[in-house]
Amino acid sequence: MRKPRDYDSELKALEDKARELKTRKVQQLGELVIATGADTLTAEELAGALMVLAETKDAGKREAWAKRGAAFFQGRARRSTPAPDRDADGAPTQSGGAHPASGGAGVA
User: Fold this and answer.
1) Distance of CA 104 to the CA centre of its chain
2) DSSP structure class, residue 42
3) What sections of 37-82 are H helices per DSSP?
4) How far is CA 6 from CA 11, 39, 90, in A?
5) With 0-12 CB in 10 A as exposed, 13-18 as middle and 19+ as buried, what is 68?
6) Which residue ranges of the chain lie beneath pLDDT 70?
């Protein structure tokens, strides 16, 4: 005879997993905001910029943003190993790259 399934415990486990995934997503988005230098913006500025990005349907702009984002992540992966070099070389590059990204978004 088969053992009956405990649907309540399975549902609770799925809810816990969903909560963990949501928490991880929020944490990663916060880390991304900090890594790009966007944490210097006010919450209103950041929300407004993200709303414009989400509403943009222009494929050319979205492709340009995607390429810039990919370059950002590739550059961070290369710089993540040597911490002392990252402080000297990475900080100006990141702050210089972060601010034009907002300005470039409107231009691109």
Assistant:
1) 17
2) -
3) 43-55, 59-79
4) 9, 45, 52
5) middle
6) 78-108
